[in-house]
Amino acid sequence: MRSPVQSTAANNILKKASQLLIQERIRHHRKTKAIALNTIANQQEQLQTILSPDNYNTLRQLQNQSNHNLDDATKKTHITKLNSLVPNGPITKRQPRDDYLNKINLSSRTLSDEDRAVLSKGLNFAPSPRQHNDTFIANIEKGLQQFAPGGKVDYLRHQIANILVKKNNTNAKIKDNLSKANKAALKQLQSDPAITIAPADKGRATVIMDTTAFTTLTNNILNDPATYKQLKKDPTNSLQRDHKAHLKELRDNNEIGPTLHKQLTVPHPRPPYARATIKIHKDPIKARLLVCSRNTVNYNTAQHIARLFAPLGKSAKSFVSDSAEFCTKISAITQPGKLISYDVVDLFTNVPREEALTIIRKRLQDLHPDLDTHLSIDSIIRLINSCISSTYFTWSDKIYQQTNGLPMDSPLSPIITEIYMTELEDKALLTSIIAPICWYRKVDDTFVVLNPNDNPEHLLNHMNSQHPRMRFTKEEESDNKLPFLDVLVKKEDNKLSTTVYRKPTNTFTLSPTTRYRLRNASYPLSPGELRTSALESELNHIRHVFVHYNQYPQKLVNNIITTTLNPRDKPPRRQSAPFVISIPYVPAVSHQIRRLLQQQPSIDVLFQKGKSIQNLLQATGCDASQGIQAETTVFTYFLLCYNVTE
Q1: Nearest Cα to 272, choosing from 301, 295, 306?
Q2: 3-class SS at 338?
Q3: Is 215 strand, coil or helix?
Q4: For 523-536, how does the pLDDT look when each residue is reduced to its tens digit (9 = 90+)?
Q5: pLDDT (tens digit per residue) in 41-54
Q6: CB 208 within 8 A of CB 194
Q7: Sheet of 481-484: strands edge to edge?
Q8: Sheet with 228-231, side-by-side order of all strands
Q9: How many CB atoms lie within 10 A of CB 578?
């Protein structure tokens, strides 16, 4: 039942009416049943007077058998329907994996059952958010401020205010996805200064460490004078002034238009912040620093140039985009020799900037007319230089700068790395006395097949002689097997076969969502295996992980697997709008606001996840106040208040 009036009183009336209707329905069914039983009794009395006792008993037995068969058929239909909706076997809640949690609990704290229950949800699990109008308005206003003031913007503000007011008047509550015991455990973990919780570098596991041990691991990285140095002052404001002046110069020279000028400008930039992950698969255990550069001074500019340069990063013969392409390429190799993997150590922090810019300038001179831009080559190089020279970040209450290499988490770094590595490996292989059968690379991981008589150590030494900061390591095949990306390559019968490779640290933990979205998986299997038991085995594993480990509906999982394996022609993708607004996801409200905003062709709306357990536990490895900062937006909204008495 739905009411045309959205108010608390209307909801109470509907609730009472629903209860009365259910009571009336029960009374009506009971009355109908009593009438039917009375009719059956009367008919039985009439039959007894007409039929002989033997015929009457035979008729009753046949009738009972017919009723029994009908009951069995109905029950079988219901069981079949139920099995199609729920996982095979009993439905049980996902339990914490005690053996794995004990293995990565490196602290002196003993985890309680509730601690394990919370941590088993994964650090990406987001507790149900509370609806706050100021969060919606701040994020929306940040996007609307990019437009010229006028009737359209005022209309959107008015409509959004009405949506929020109506939602508040219904007193609708968001269903909580954490129990009280879970919340209490989460609060205790938050308030314990003796431990630090951080994500594992591989496998989505959660690592609990003593704070002193965690600090020692991170200090070992930051105290390396060859890679990092500490700054005395935050350079964000100075960089923002220089960046604004440069963009204004480009706009005045008609190299960028007003719309692109707004896109490249970050209104309220924040400094990049670092977070730490723990390499539990290493012995001894080490830490890795990752930097988040979203909403920083140069982030939008780096994104724009990265889109321009996208074709340049895919032109190398060694380039592989994903596991499926890699499997296709190696399927043609016959008589394979030695399987080797050459990996670059700390690639991003060791790419020489000046040499990379020289290579990019050379590539631009060849391809500049084909690029969709009015920027000159000198302007592009200047923008790139400002993006890759900004390598500072905050850690706790200190500011550090990376002295070499490219900034981590910058959208430009992967493409510049790809361009530089293509140049380096082309020169190295051209001058090498060893000619590999194949050489494929994904970022810093390389898969190589050598002839049986070639020495892998000679090729390693040759690669390490190309540049003093570029250091390669090698991993050789074991038992005719070698992992690369998420593929396990095997030598069998003078050819290469592939199957899925899962690291020992994989916990098979997926982030639960209200809409249960599954990613379209690309199966790392060679074309000849797509119809064999290998694929079916992997599909069964996927079903088991999603359904039994993470409580996804089995019917949904099966439907998406079927759709993925039998793709249909998709409608053309909606062209991305120049302005993107991110809003918190709250059921119903967020969808209404998105539909309203997307009526404007220049606005696209994305839902952002609320604070996850990783944020709440400060599992970024730094103080949340230093890392994930609330962005400041000045706004004035007038929300109409109803039922106000003077």
Answers
A1: 295
A2: strand
A3: helix
A4: 454 444 444 456 77
A5: 888 888 888 888 88
A6: no
A7: 481-484, 487-492, 495-500
A8: 228-231, 398-402, 392-395, 273-279, 286-292
A9: 14
